Every structure is written in structure tokens, then in C-alpha cells.
Amino acid sequence: MASSSPRMYRTTSYADRLDDEGLDHLLDESDDEQFKWEGRGYGFDGELGKAEKEREEQRRILAKAVKSGDVDKLRKLLKSVGPDDVVDLINEHDGKNYSALHYAAASNNVTTVKLLLKYGADVNSVGAACRQPLHLAAAASPPKESKKGDSPRKTSVVKLLLSKNANINSQDFLGRTPLHIAILHNNSTAEGVLLANDDIDINKFDHHRATPLVLACYYGRSDVAAVLIKLDAELSGIRGFDENMDTPLHIALRERHLKIAKCIVEKGIVNGNITSLLTESNRNCVEPIHEVVKGGHRDILKHVFKECSDVSDILNRWDRNADTPLHIATYCGQYEITKMMVKKGADLDSMNKDRRTPLHLACAGNFQTIAVLFVENGADLKASDDDGLAPLQVAANSKSLDTIVALLERLRNLDLQTAGGRNDCLGPKLLEWVAAENKADALQILLQHGTKLHGVKENDVLGYILDAASKGHTETVVALINWNREVLKKRDDRGRTPLHLAAEAGREATTNELLKARPHVDETDVNGFTALHCAAENGWVRTAEVLIRSKYDINKQTTDNQRTPLHLACGSGHFQMAKLLIFKEGADILLLDGDGENCLIQAIKGAHENVGRLLLSHEKWRDLMAITCLHPNSTDETTTPMRVLIEHMPDIAIYVMDRCISWQNKTRLEFDFELLDDTFSPWRLRPKTAEKDANDLHISTANGLEDHHVIRVASVSLEPNGLTNDGAHVSTDDNTPIDDEGVVPEGAHKDDDFPYEENGRLKKYAMPYTTKASEIRDAHPLNIMVSLKRGELLAHPLVTSLLHHKWTSNGRFFILLSLSFYLIFLLMLTGYVVVVPPSFYARSANTTTGVTWFADGEERWVEDGLTPEVIIFGLLGDWVVLVLSIINLLREFLQLKSYGLSYFNFGNLLEWVLYTLTVLFVLPLSDIQYITGIHIRMDWQWQCGAVAVFLAWINLILFVRRFAALGIYVIMLIDILRTFLKFVLILALFIVAFSMAFYMLLMNQEPFHRIQYSFAKTFVMMLGEVDFGDIFHDQNYLNTENTLAGGEEDFFLTNLFYEGITYTIFALFFVIMSILIMNMMVGLAVDDIHAIQQKAELHRLVMQAELVMTVQQALPMRIWRSAVICRKVIDMDEELTGLSKYYRAYRGYSQHVKKAIARAEETANMVDMSQEDDSNNRFFSDMTHRLKVMESKAAEECEKRNIELAEIRADQRLLRDRFNGVEKKLDSFLNALTDIMEGRAADAD
């Protein structure tokens, strides 16, 4: 039941005794407290007089006589006391604050009471706890006289006290009247006497707002309750007694005092207010009608229904959980009561706060007769509760299988009797939901009673297995297989069978059950995926193991792109799956997919480093790397795995390079360079005109072995006639022709496709994959390392060994030769500038009069004549410079043609300007010769020469930058210059600000006379050339600057007209420009230098690689191909002699070899990943599997929690009822304890 059942009432406990000691103790003669009278202290203090002792003795005799009922002794005592003292003696209270009449009434001794009243006892004397004698009489046992045959009422102390005008409605400290106390002590005699009195108030409340009728209902006093009801005791409107604010009818029903409850109901019927009585709610919104149906009091309900014509207001009442009486009766399984209420028109579709109808509750409790009753009377079978569940779904959740079958049978019969068949869809929907929610028990029952599922189609049932397999509902899958094995052939819109879906979702148990049914294991979907493909793609290792045990082909390729399970596992980054397929099951790692990519390419594209390392630990790792593939970021650019690793996985690239170094027998060190220098490797050479099916192509692997796997076709770009784009002629040594398509004709590689000799040297017939020098350089692995600043790769022994080989093969000779030619050019240009006079030295120059000179021109340029310096640099130098400049311009032009737009950079543009200006400078354009053979240069030529010689030396700096030893300082300078250029705008703004101020204040002085002069002077002042004395104190200290005595010109040119503001501006200038700005620029420079020094090793490696690649790019292919080798072997037993030993030491070669050996040994000692099966790997594998399973089941668990919540609510209701019972007893105890404490407090007062 969704809503909670009504709470048990927590009533206040009414003690059967009036105080904590009880009446028996009150009448105990051994209690000395009763002899301690008020105002007398405790006992006798000192010597009392004779009268006082006599008085005390009288009190003692009085108490004992009253307590024991000794009438004779009492009468004798009362007669012996004087008339004036007897009243005082009788009405005097003892230590318990009781008088003699209290004790007499408590003992219920009529004779004693009469005698005391005769002598003047106070009938309304108030004793302890505000109790009067009548209260004690109401609680007393039946009188002794009743045992002698006298009528109890005639001999009742209560009646006797009332006859003496005792207050019948008096209340004690708890607000209880004598009638309350009589009912509490089951004193029927007292009850009869009290109720017969006309003055009694039968509706009097005590302090707990309990009337006598409430107490009678609580304690089951049906006789007195009947009298009270007959006397028209209040039946409704009573709000009290406990915190639930129950009415008498609530209490009678709760305590199951049905006789009283019937009396109240009959009285309500007679009075015409039965509806209000049954619908009066307590604090918990529980009404008596709810208690009637909960307790199963069918007779009461039947009587109400019989006597009341309209009971709709009663039947549709809600409690605090919005439960109607029909809800409660259904939850309790009260069939007869539910039948009566349905017959009287109870709302069958009323919903409680959980939106559950009575039909929901009947289905949840498996009350099939009640559920059928509701359906027959039109209950809504499609109503949904808060969980979205219809009644039949609730029945399935609660495993109310009998109810499901009974309802479906009844529905089928009802639909057959009607033309509409409005319940046709319930069967299919229920079956679909049961299958989707893995309610296997319910599904089995439904499938067994298939004839009762009106509207269910077999094809729909077959489809349920797809969802069950995907969700891992193994029990449902088994039930469907047992029902019809055709479910194994069902496919979804992707053509996937249940086995595909179970494997895709990693449902190991479900997959195992499906395989037990022996389906066709080679079934594929529309893309050619088997179940193993699905498991591998999603990384379900355990599921894959189950499938592999069923003899799945682990190398089966898909139809759409020829991918194997290993391709999918690697592409998705599933390490454990890849490890299983490769090392345990022996999957072929060299198979290529439809795009010509192997499993390593898939792992690289997915950026799965761990999978890549796993693959490269395989013995065939070298073949994995020997392939061309599409670049991950391009659709047409080809690349190799090594290049992609350098770009995206440098750590894996280091691992590959480690494996390229082998240390054999501790004497032979071998480097494998082919992966780093693969220009001529066969996997890079893809003929453009090859149009054969890729599956028919055969290529050679790096080991020279034939490989027939699928490869992709890429193009080779060659220009016609065998000319490369940079003009270099590409042909074989035996003049093998190259066709117009740039394809090497068949047979050009002779009989062996492998381009390297046995010693690792390049064969003469080997061809590069492209002849574009710029493409080779840009795509070269070394250049990629440089562009990405991969210092850790550049520092690898394999890379340094390759760079060393290229440098020693031809790089050093070319670079030294280039440097030599450039130094000759620079020397000749500089010498020419030194020995040739500038044009401004000539006063006049013409062909007739010759040249006349300024200053020492004649002496300097003419008188010495043709000295050796003049002959070398003046007569020959200009022609040497001109020839070298033209050669360099041609070289730059060829590079521009070869490189295209990539040619344009600062260095190349600088060389264009340098050589162009040099040619213009040295050309003999003037006809005037100041010495035979040496012409005067025109003004513009001399200016061109000044710029050219400046750029020539700057270019030398850029040339020197290529050498690691000096290049680091050039890099520092360039970085500092870049930083300065970022700051120059701010600096310029400060210079403009101060320049304008100085121009306005010091315009009369020469350095600031023009605006451009002011800018220049301000900039120079910033560098330290202030000339403070010349500006401010050019005249003497006698202050003659204000007179014209020294002459007007001196006065104007040196005077400081605005001294105050000028000094202020100068002070700001010194602080800002000379201190702040200059120090800030120094700090920026220091930071740049520090940053470069921290990466000095990286810069050194980058410069080395750039130098080698620059040399290779600049050389014709015929030359640089001689430096290409696939491997290099160093025999450590070989003895070095002569200069070789010292050269290697100088180059750090021995250190380089040591690093290479250390790398090789480290790689050799690494544990083969294929053999790793330690506890950690197993632990992480298990954890990974568990996490994936948990993730996949998270949604299902959430749904299950909703169902469990409903069950928890039902359990909570049971616990709440039990707790209420315990709480009731606890409240009774606490209230009794409170009464005791309050009574003692009142006595103390």
C-alpha cells in the first residue's frame, strides 16, 4: 500500500491507584505518618502538658478506629470528647493531609462514615491532591455490608456522602471527578449512584480533556458507556485525551471495544448525525470510518449502510495520506467490506498521495478476488501511480502472479463480451513492460498463459529479447529462449542479434546464456560486425573471453572497412582487450583495414598511448611502423606512424627510438635510422598511377620481407623530364628514365624492392617518395621535432647519432665551404669599402680636370698610388664581389622557385637586399677614375654600399647562429630584440612626451631648435648623454644671463627662460627615462636571457638539427642521398688510432655511445608486456571491468530504487504501527510519572 496505515493512538495512562502508595497503604495501621497531625511538627518535641498528651492520644485512637472500622471504639471516643472539641478532632488533617472522613470513605465503611457525619465531619473537606472524601469513596472496594445481603446502593458510602450534599462534580488536582475515578477503578456501584444523581455533569473534562465516556471507551466499560450514551453524553466535538485528538468512537474502535462502538453508531443513527460521527477526523486526519474498515468491523459498516440511504460522504473520505476507506480495506484484504463499499458506489479510481488507486493496492497485495471485483465494476486498469506504474505492472513488481493471471483472464472474457475490446492493448503493454523490467517470473507466467494475452503478437514478443540482451536481463533472456528459440534470430534496425547487443553492452552472463543456446556465432550486422567486434569495440574483456571460447574468428574483418576486433579495440583505447587479443589469442597485428591502416594507426589516432606501447612491445613492432597513413588532422595528407608519434605521443616515440638501438653481445652497437630517415623507404613510395586493388599490392617491409597486406595508394610528385621542382635532375645512375607522370617504370628497382644494401647504404636505384626538397624537409621527422621543440626526442642517442652521421658525411664540408665563400665575399666587400674613397670627399670631379679633394683626400687616396691593398681590394675586389653576389642571387632565385611561398622569411629577404645593394654598389657606373681602373662611386651608390656592408656583417651573425657554440648568443639577442619591439610603443610615447616639452622650453638652444632635433636629443639623453651643464649653466655664475653685456647672440642661445618648469620636467625625465625605463628594459633582457639559458640544451639541439636539415635541403639530391643509411653499426672492439680518437672525444662521441648503450640495455631489460600478468594488472583489469559494469547498470539501479522505495514505504507503515504501540506505553508511563510529581509538588505547597 502506497500510503501509510493510520497511526495507533497514544493514550494517557490512568493509574488504578489514586497516588503512588495506593489505598491499601493509606489504610495501613502501621503507618506512623497518620498520627502526625498538622501544625504539630514531627513527633513530640519536649515535655508536653497533660492536656496535650491526652489530645494526642485521642487522635491516635481516632485514626486506628477509623482505619480498622471499630465503630464501638470510635463511638466511645467521640462521646468522651467534649462537644466543643469533637468537631475539631474529627476534621483535623494528619500528616498526609487527610481527615478521619477521608479514611472512612476510603475504607468504604458506611457505619463509620455515618458516625463521623453525625458528629460534624466536613463532607467536602479537601485533602491531599485536592481529593475530597467522595473521590476516595468512588475508588473504594464494594462495602462490607453488601456481603450481608443489603443492596449496594442502599449501603453505598457514595450515596451517603451525596445525601450530605457532597460536591458530585468536584475535581482533584488532575481534574478528575468522582465519576472519572469510579470508571478508572471499575466501581460499578459508585458509577450507578453517581449517574443516578441529577446534578452530575457527565461531560466534565479532566485535565487531559477526557470525559467519563472517553475513559469508558478506553477501558472497555461497556455498561457505563451504554448508560452515558443513553444519557446523551457528548459523542462528537471532543478533542482531547491524547495528542491525536481522538473522539470516543476513535478510541472504541481502536481498542476494539465493539459493543461500545456499536452503541455510539446506533446513537448516531438515532440522532441523525452518524455521518459526522464517522467522518470526524483526529489530528492525523484519521476518521472513525477508516478504523472501521481497517479493523474489519463488517457488522458496524453493514448496519450503517442499512440504516443510511446516502453513504457517499462516508465512503470517499480521505485520511492524511489521501487514502479512502476503500484503499484501507483493500490494503487489509477485507474482501467482504470492499464488496459492500463497491456496491454502495465507492470511487474505484480515487488516488491517494502516491497516486495509487485501490486496484493498485489489490494488485500489490495479490488480492486477486478484490482486484477482479474492481475490474468487473469498471476500475481503470491504465491509471498510473507516481512511479508511472499501472495496476498490472504493480502486480508484476510485487510478484502477484495469481492476480495477473486472474485479471488477464477476466479482461479477455470482458473483451469477448463487448464489441470494442477496449483492453486489447493491456496484454501487449504488460508483456513488453515485464520483459523490459526483467520480471522473469511474471514473464514466464504470461508466456505460459499466452492464450489469455488478448492482442499480443508473436513477432512483438520475439523482439523483447533485443532490449533484454542489451540491458543484461539474463533471466528474461532465458525465459524468452525457453519459450521460443526463434528469438535468437531477431535483429534490430542495425542488423544486430541479441548476441551482438549483449556483447556490445558487456553483459557477460547474458552472453554466456545466449551462447548456451548455440546461435550462429558468425552472424554479422549490416556493417559486418560480429559479436566479438562489438565486445572489442567497447572493451568488454570478460565478454570477449566468453565469445572466444566459442571459437570466434578473432581476425575476421568487417565488410564496410575491413576492421578486425583488434582494430576496434586499439582505436577505442581498450588496453586489456588489446592485450587479450594480441598476446593471449594471437591476433594478427599486421592486418590493414580498408583505409590501409593497421591497429597501431588506430591507437595513435585515438591518442591511446598505453595501447600504442603495448603494440610496440610485440615482436613485429617494426612492421607496424613501416606503413603510410593519412594524417589525423587531414583528409589528403599522408604521413607515417613515427611522425604522428613525434607530434602527439612523444613518450611513445622515445620508446620506439629505444627499440631502434640494439646492444649485441656487449660489443656491437647498432642504430636503426630508417624510421627517422624514411625518404627512400618502400612504404613511402606509392606510385600515382597504380590503380590496382589495394588487396593485390605487395610491398616489402622494413626487414625486406614480402608483405601482402592491404595498403593505400598515395601520389609521388615529379616534374617531367626528370627535373625536380628545385631544378635538380633526378635520374638513376644508369639513366633509367622517369615517365611524365613522375613514376619510376617497372623494373627500375631491379629485382629487389628493398632500397638499402646489406651494409645499410642506399642503393643507387632507390627513389625518394617525392623530389620536392621543401616537402622532404617539412615532413622529415627531424624537422617535426625541431618545429615542435621536442627536446627530449632531439637529445635521444638515435637522433644525435643520425645527426652526427649526416654532419660528418657531407654536412660539415658543405657548411664550411659555404662559410668560406661568404667570408671571401665579406672580406672583399669590406676591403673595397676601406680602400675606395666616398663621393663626398671629392670637391669636384670631371673627365677633363680630374678630381679635386676636400681635406686630406689627395694625400689619402692618390699620393700612395697602387699599393697592394688597392690592387687587391680596389682593382680586383669589386669584380670578385660582383661575381659572388650574382651567383648568390641566382641561388636565391632557384630556392624561391623550389620552395614557393615557404621561401619567404627574414633571412632570405635580407640576402636578396644584401646582394642587390652590393651589385648596385660595385658596378662602375661613373666615368671618372681617381686612379687608373678605380672609379668614383656616385652618392647613391655609396649609400647603397653603406647599407650593404652593414647587412653583410648582420648576415654573418645569422650564419653563425647555426653553430651551437655561438648561436645561443644570437638567439639571446634576437629574443631581447623581440621583447624590445613589444615595448617600443610605450617607450616612443614617453620620448614624444618629453621631446615636445623640451622643444617648447629650450627651443632657443641648438639641440632643441627643431622638433626632429629635440626627438634625437631626448633619445640620446635617455642613454646617458645629458649635457646638464651646457643646458642649464652655459653662462657664468654671476647671473649675467639676464643682460646683453656678453652679446645678444650668446645671451639668446644660452639663456634659460623658464627655469622652474624646465627643472621639473628634467627631474621627471631622469626618474622615468633614465631610471625606471632603462632598468625595466634591463630586467626584461635579463629575463629573456635567463629563459634561454634554462633551455640552452634544447636550443643547442634545435640548432644542430636545423643546420643538418638546412644543408640537406640546399644540396642536390645526388649529393645528400649518399648520407642516407638505414642502419649504423659501431664495433666497440675496434681500436681507434690517430686523430679519430681525439676527434670523437672532442665531439663528445664517447658520451653519446654510452647513452645509447644505456638505452639499449634498459630496453632489453624491460619486462615484456605480453608476459605481464602480475597481481596489479589483474587487480586493475578487474576494477576496470567492474566500473564498466557499474556504469552500465546505473540507470537500471535507479529504476529499481523506485520500486524498492514503494516496498520500503509499506515496511515503514508496519514499523510505525509497532512504534506507536511502544510509544503509547511510554507516554502512559511518562504521564503517570508527571501526575506523581505534580501531586508531590501540591503536597509540598
TrEMBL record:
GO CC aspect terms: membrane
Keywords: ANK repeat, Ion channel, Ion transport, Membrane, Repeat, Sensory transduction, Transmembrane, Transmembrane helix, Transport
Short name of any one Pfam family annotated for the protein: Ank_2
Entry keyword annotation includes Disulfide bond: no
Subcellular location: Membrane
GO molecular function: monoatomic ion channel activity
Ranges where the Ion transport domain occurs: 878-1096
Topological relation to the membrane, as annotated: Multi-pass membrane protein
Keyword S-adenosyl-L-methionine found: no
InterPro entries in alphabetical order: Ankyrin_rpt, Ankyrin_rpt-contain_sf, Ion_trans_dom, TRP_cation_channel
ANK repeat residue numbers: 96-128, 321-353, 354-386, 494-526, 527-559, 561-594
Transmembrane segments: 813-835, 902-925, 940-960, 980-1002, 1061-1086
Classification via SUPFAM superfamilies: Ankyrin repeat
PANTHER family noted in UniProt: PWWP DOMAIN-CONTAINING PROTEIN, TRANSIENT RECEPTOR POTENTIAL CATION CHANNEL PROTEIN PAINLESS
Protein name: Ion transport domain-containing protein
